Amino acid sequence: MTLVDRGRTADIEAITKCVRDYAEGWYTADPVRMRRALHPDLSKRTIIRDPFREDVLTVGEPTVTTADRMVRLTANGGGRDDSAGDGAVEVEVVHLWRDMAMAACKSRDFMDCLQLGRFGRDGWKIVNALWQPLEGYHDPAKWSEQEAAFWTPAK
């Protein structure tokens, strides 16, 4: 089975640009690029190992992010303050069928599995994102006060 028709170069380029707007917009704190990449009904989730209980994997609050929240986080500095590397972004379109696609995006801190849709004149938008931090990113010893407040479970 062929998952990507490599002859659809215009779509592959548009999808790659969308994903780069998402990832690079985060690292440059550019809310315009972030908004351009996201569908208004975005659902972004993560599966993380609870840093306080190694055996617990979490999906859900506080790990569900909407498009509006993602744009706000980006406008407030995004990944600009992260110190985990050079910000290189790798994108691979792994599935493309009619008006839907899947892409993988590896950045300096995260691996994202993204589902995209093509929406007429609005073009390709990220509809769903499932992400995990790369090894070492969620080291509580390295957290800022804001990160600690976000990730520490409420008592």
How does this structure look, described?
The protein is of the alpha+beta class and 155 residues long. It has one domain (9-151): Roll (Nuclear Transport Factor 2, Chain: A), CATH 3.10.450. The protein has four helices and seven strands. The strands form two sheets. Strands 1-7-6-5-4 form a five-stranded mixed sheet. Strands 2-3 form a two-stranded antiparallel sheet. Helix 1 runs antiparallel to helix 2 (31-37) and helix 2 packs antiparallel against helix 3. The protein is globular. The relative contact order is 0.20. The model has no long low-confidence stretch (mean pLDDT 84).
List the helices and strands and how they pair.
Layout lengths: L8 H19 L3 H7 E9 L1 E2 L7 E2 L8 H9 L14 E8 L2 E7 L3 E9 L5 E10 L11 H7 L4
Parallel strand pairs: 1-7
Antiparallel strand pairs: 2-3, 4-5, 5-6, 6-7
Helix pairs in contact: 1-2, 2-3
The gross shape turns out to be globular
Beta-strand content: 25-35%
As residue ranges, the low-confidence spans are none
> C-alpha Rg, in Å?
16 Å
- CATH C-level label: Alpha Beta
User: In total, how many beta strands?
Assistant: 7
Going by helix content, strand content and strand pairing, the class is alpha+beta
Number of helices: 4
Strand order of the largest sheet: 1-7-6-5-4
Tally of structural domains: 1
- Give the N-to-C terminal Cα separation: 49 Å
How much is the average pLDDT?
84
Assigned CATH architecture: Roll
Largest sheet: 5 strands, mixed
Helix proportion: 25-40%
CATH topology: Nuclear Transport Factor 2, Chain: A
